[in-house]
């Protein structure tokens, strides 16, 4: 029961992070290697606001999420749009975006190191234990889980039930045909990238509520999100959510029952297994 509850709580954050990366790649066709650094930037902003003003992390997230959307919109307009304009066909955009965001990764990481240093950072916020089916869980973890589930669930419903969501799915599935029905593919791609950045910011803010982190951890979050995206099937929103919860359960099981030092190794072992035996993802179609 301990592994189940703590694994689901951790998996909620992973699922939200993977959902953002899924949207960015599925809609914009951009593989964002700086995704983890954007996540960490939001985490550090929350810590700075909490320490400087005493602002509640919950209230800070309400501001950080829209700010993340604006940052994503700006990055796409300034940095990604020129890559899209010159990409043409043949998958050049994927290669160019990997190289460009690889450079962006180190730029953001350098700014974070200068601004906040390389030491591990955390805050003390509602860290008292609460019993959930007899398992003590920190209240801040439960709040972070509720935020991730609410944000992720609302987005999934919007994608499935609204005309706006239908437009995003149309561009993700058939970008070449979407203009035939009057869809502005560039505008939708920019929305998808900005929305993915907003989810990264939200996930980073929830991570800051209960985890210790440093400015060098961005690549870990990027790789975990990438592992989840591939496990769930590239572009598969439901698969990303399910794989995120699954990875949280696996990491918690390994840390609790075997050795905490092997959690990252277990993550990449799953990643390699999926690539070798089911490259379309556990929930993707062949």
Give a structural overview.
This protein is mainly alpha-helical and 286 residues long. The chain has ten helices and two strands, in the order H-H-H-H-E-E-H-H-H-H-H-H. Strands 1-2 form a two-stranded antiparallel sheet. A hairpin with a 2-residue loop joins strand 1 and strand 2. Helix 1 runs antiparallel to helix 7 and helix 8 runs parallel beside helix 10. The relative contact order is 0.22. The mean pLDDT is 88.
Write a concise synopsis of the structure shown:
With 286 residues, the protein is an all-alpha fold.
Q: Quick one: biggest sheet?
A: 2 strands, antiparallel
- In terms of DSSP E residues, the strand content is under 5%
Number of helical segments with 4 or more residues: 10
In angstroms, what is the radius of gyration?
18 Å
As laid out across the biggest beta sheet, the strand order is 1-2
Order of helices and strands: HHHHEEHHHHHH
Uncertain ranges: none
Mean pLDDT: 88
Oligomer: single chain
Number of strands: 2
Rounded to the nearest angstrom, the distance between the terminal CA atoms is 35 Å
Silhouette: globular
Q: Approximately how much helix is present in the residues?
A: over 70%
Task: Kindly name the structural category.
Answer: mainly alpha
List descriptors.
10 helices; 75% helix; 286 residues
Topology at a glance:
Layout: H1 2-28, H2 35-53, H3 57-87, H4 92-116, E1 129-132, E2 135-138, H5 139-161, H6 163-173, H7 185-210, H8 218-232, H9 237-258, H10 263-277
Antiparallel strand pairs: 1-2
Helix pairs in contact: 1-5, 1-6, 1-7, 1-8, 1-9, 2-3, 2-4, 2-7, 2-8, 3-4, 3-7, 5-6, 5-7, 8-9, 8-10, 9-10
């Amino acid at each position: 029961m301990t592994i189940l509850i703590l694994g689901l709580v951790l998996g909620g954050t992973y699922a939200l992070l993977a959902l953002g990366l899924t949207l960015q790649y599925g809609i914009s066709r951009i593989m964002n290697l700086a995704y983890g650094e954007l996540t960490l930037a939001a985490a550090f902003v929350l810590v700075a606001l909490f320490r400087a003003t005493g602002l509640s992390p919950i209230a800070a997230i309400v501001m950080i999420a829209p700010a993340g959307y604006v940052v994503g919109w700006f990055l796409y307009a300034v940095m990604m749009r020129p890559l899209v304009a010159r990409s043409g066909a043949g998958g050049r955009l994927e290669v160019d975006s990997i190289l460009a965001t690889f450079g962006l990764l180190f730029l953001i990481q350098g700014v974070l190191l200068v601004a906040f240093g390389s030491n591990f950072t955390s805050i003390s916020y509602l860290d008292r234990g609460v019993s959930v089916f007899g398992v003590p869980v920190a209240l801040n973890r439960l709040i972070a889980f509720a935020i991730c589930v609410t944000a992720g669930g609302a987005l999934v419903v919007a994608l499935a039930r609204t005309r706006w969501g239908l437009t995003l799915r149309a561009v993700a599935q058939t970008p070449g045909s979407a203009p035939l029905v009057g869809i502005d593919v560039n505008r939708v791609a920019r929305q998808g990238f900005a929305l993915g950045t907003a989810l990264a910011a939200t996930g980073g803010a929830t991570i800051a509520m209960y985890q210790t982190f440093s400015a060098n951890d961005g690549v870990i979050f990027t790789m975990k999100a990438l592992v989840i995206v591939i496990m769930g099937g590239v572009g598969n929103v439901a698969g990303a959510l399910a794989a995120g919860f699954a990875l949280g359960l696996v990491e918690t099981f390994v840390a609790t029952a075997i050795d905490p030092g092997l959690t990252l190794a277990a993550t990449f072992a799953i990643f390699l297994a999926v690539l070798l035996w089911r490259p379309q993802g556990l929930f993707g179609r062949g």
